[in-house]
Specification:
The protein is α/β, with parallel strands linked by helices. The chain is built from six helices and 14 strands.
Length: 248
């Protein structure tokens, strides 16, 4: 497979970043055929997550649609991280078009892990390599299971380089093959953590998880590894970006 195109970056390995589509959640229940929505204007994604958790016991029919932070990296290569979902209005292609880009202008698509809400919109990039860690697929015919055929670029190991100036760390806990992306910017180190950091920002801030939280030991170990990177900005999958000072 050909490597990614390297743009005219003047030899710099610095990246610029922006969030193409901010994270959001839509929460609903159905009782006796009646739909009830639980989405207050102006609230953040993690507020709706907390409400969703509280609804489950009393509403057997419940649902949540979650979109992750979809990030555009511009530098030695152009990268879209976690394209999100396919839906009417095609928000991701429209967001690229606002910046004068088409899916064909992207060099790489990176999935921090293989859950549906992060990978479904990969279909907008039919000719672009898709990067994901092989551990997401349990070691069985991983390339076929990704659904991307020969364009799937499978990462292996605990860390490595994806492209000039862009590296990954495997940070299991949310899923077996979850990764964080690490890039340098003119304002310090950027870490894109996917769902490794979450579901509530207070958990990461306090380095504590509720009793019985699934995979807590592995997740805390991954959080310590992220803090050791001392990022100026950390972008979780479903929470707002966290600024400098998170490593204290």
């Amino acid at each position: 497979m050909p490597g990614p195109r390297v743009g005219d970056s003047g030899g710099s390995t610095l990246f610029r970043w922006e969030i193409l589509i901010p994270t959001q959640r839509y929460v609903f229940t159905v009782d006796s055929g009646r739909l009830e929505e639980y989405n207050r204007q102006g609230e953040l994604s993690f507020h709706r997550f907390s409400r969703y958790q509280g609804l489950k016991a009393d509403h057997p029919v419940h649902g949540m649609i979650a979109w992750p932070n979809t990030v555009l990296l511009s530098g030695p290569v152009t990268v879209v991280v976690d394209p999100g979902l396919v839906m009417q209005g095609e928000p991701l292609p429209a967001a690229l078009a606002e910046r004068g880009l088409s899916p064909g202008d992207v060099d790489l698509v990176v999935n921090t892990h293989a859950h549906m809400d992060h990978v479904q919109a990969n279909v907008y990039f039919p000719d672009i390599p898709i990067v994901v860690h092989e551990a997401e697929f349990g070691g069985s015919p991983a390339r076929a299971r990704t659904g991307f055929g020969e364009r799937a670029r499978l990462l292996s190991g605990d860390e490595g380089e994806i492209a000039p100036g862009l590296r990954f760390l495997r940070t299991p806990g949310h899923s077996e093959g979850s990764i964080c992306l690490v890039a340098e910017t003119d304002r310090g180190r950027l870490v894109i953590a996917g769902d490794t950091v979450g579901p509530l920002p207070s958990y990461f801030a306090s380095m504590e998880l509720p009793a019985g939280f699934p995979g807590a030991d592995r997740l805390l170990q991954s959080w310590r590894r992220i803090r050791e990177l001392d990022p100026a900005v950390l972008i979780p999958g479903h929470n707002p970006p966290m600024r400098a000072g998170i490593s204290g």
